[in-house]
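Worked example (supplementary).
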Amino acid sequence: MNSIETNLSWWQVQPDVLWTDWLIYALLVVIAIFVNHARQHEHLRAPWRLISHRRLAMSSCIILLSFATVGLLDSIHFREAVEQRSDGSIRYANESVSLFDQIIAPLKNNTEKTYSAPFAVQLYSKENVESADGTMRRDYPRLEFGGAHLGDDPANRSQDIQARILTALWQAALLIVAMTALFALWRGKKCSQSFAQSLRSMWYGHGDIPWKTVIATLAFIIVLISLSLQLATVYHVFGTDKVGQDVFYLTLKSIRTGLVIGTLTTLVMLPFAIMLGIMAGYYRGWVDDVIQYTYTTLSSIPSVLLIVAAVLMIQVLIDNNPDAFSTLQQRADVKLLALCFILGITSWTGLCRLLRGESLKLREADYIQAAQSFGVSNFVIITRHILPNVMHIVLILVVIDFSGLVLAEAVLSYVGVGVDPSMISWGNMINGARLEMAREPIVWWSLMAAFIFMLMLVLTANLFADAVRDAFDPHLRSS
Amino acid sequence: MIAYILRRLMYAVPILIGVNLITFSLFFIVNTPENIARMQLGVKNVTPAAIEKWKINHGYDKPLLFNQNNEGMSAFTDTIFYEKSVRLFVFDFGSSDEGRDISYDIQQRMWPSLAIAIPSLIVGLLVNITLAMLLAFFRNTYIDISGVILGVLLMSISALFYIIGGQYIMSKLWHLVPISGYIEGVDGLKFLILPVVIAVVSGIGSGTRWYRTIFLEEINKDYVRTARAKGLSEINVLFSHVLRNAMIPILTGVVVIIPLLFMGSLLTESFFGIPGLGSYTIDAIHSQDFAVVRAMVFLGSVLYIIGLILTDISYTLVDPRIRLS
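After joint prediction of all chains, the assembly is encoded as:
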């Protein structure tokens, strides 16, 4: 190949938008429209204000937002430039990477040979090692990257870790103080208080927003980030997996998969559920019969089995058409999207049933009877009068469903009908680690990392969902 | 009563036909038998002759819906739709892609499933209701609040971790029970303890939370206030008034799932190596045995619909206010 190596700049990249990326951007647009709409209407702002006054809800919201940030950064994909050809055109890499990959590049690239424990400097299994005098012996070989900065003397590892933790805490403390000061300044400006006054009322919890909780949660996140900056760059904080990949990297990448399943599933099923549910309740008669029949039939198939059947079929379909996808990554992405659709098909029935019941009630309301007698068309009645009055149910169910879907991903991947095996997800991590439980001493770190991150995401999502339900409709029963 | 049950059974027929059509289109139209044959044979062995042979061996060599070569009724009966889908209605599941009789397998494998599922359901109900009653008794105190938060925490842990953690702690660390396996008879009891305990513990979070809301809904009603005004103790009120009336929503939730107990649990059975219907399904998924998966989908829907009918009947039995109509 007659190409000349030139200095390629980091910005010479080719955007590569996967299908799920498009949908995530669409979701962002929908959320932006919704937020903008809610800001202008007092009756929509009030419940959110109620949520912002609750400590647990605020704290969960902040943690969820930080998860979402990771997921979003991980959804901006591009191909890096590899080389510049002689005619000036640029050749790009086959596999695309995400912005998040670039940020945590050291984690991604520091792969060892096989398993190593968290913070280890040696491999987990013995190998033939050549000593300085040329003889071979069985020993735990030194890791290539884990603790590499310690050089040949890994004995002072614990001192090094302590020193790094201290540095991280110092940096975090400085940041937290600066952040608190900024918040106090901003709040003082808004409430026309002096800086000291503002700080005092934040401390004593005057006003509505629980500032102490907000700052404590943000401080927690800042400490975590600065700890991982100090430690994860030189150690494998959660160890490495079978092929030597950093488990911390895997669990961070899994966040996007979990979020995609949790959000896109709802996004793809919402239009159907809303439209059919309202139509069934509003038109009644044969429309109602047909829609009720459809969802009763679908919901009478146990959802796991329906998902299994559908995923098996999609897998066969994809495996029989290998030419439709140019890269493995795209294939995995389409599989992920198909999984979202399948989960969506099996989970819209509950929402549809609730919306039908609510529209049945609403159509008898005076203002809708009035609109009908004025000759307003059915379409306008549905979009202007019924839809806004059932949106709170939609919102509550969306938030409640999220955590269940994240958990479902893990189980489905274990069963073998989840995401593509090449896709990094918590389900695949657990599945891979499960087989190592029989080892002595056991390889526990993959499970631990997946456990901690999943628990954080699902727990905060559950707590937030409770707050949303209490604020919008405390009587809505849905389990 | 009998007329009512018959009518409910009649309603079930169109739904089952719908389920059947869905499975048929999933398994035969989205994917032609040819695709499945190619999948089963593997990439190396695919020749047109091999595919034809596989199709004939497994009875997939007929037209999907209408056989032009035959006349009269057999134009409809000598098709894949009739052979594979219509026969499900009389519970003739045919043979699996490996050649085993599915009906026989199901009869053999439902007992281990039940051996796990029934104790899990009963113990789980008792534990959840007891805990929910406790929380309702201590409502609006710190015990209640911390109980609710603990419940959310337990709900947020994936079922996989309950199983893996339970196996590790109970079997590997403490050596209390065998890690997995199953034998029939009294000796097999030790194999059942761990799956049942894990099934109960993993359901505590959501179950307790759900029953607590039911109790709290009842506790604010007028008749409860009347009972307290009469001077009954809080314990008495809870047990003889609240619990009895709360049994109605609890019962409906439980009766629906009773028939589905036959199906077992995919996760529990595959982790513990229990030869029930759940692991049967998992094995079928892994070996891509579509005949078995199809049979299980149909069986599952039938059991679910039976559950719904039983729910309606039990409603009328426990709540005299509801009349059959």
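Two points are worth noting when inspecting this output. Chain B has a mean pLDDT of 83. Chain B touches chain A through 50 residues (CB under 8 Å).
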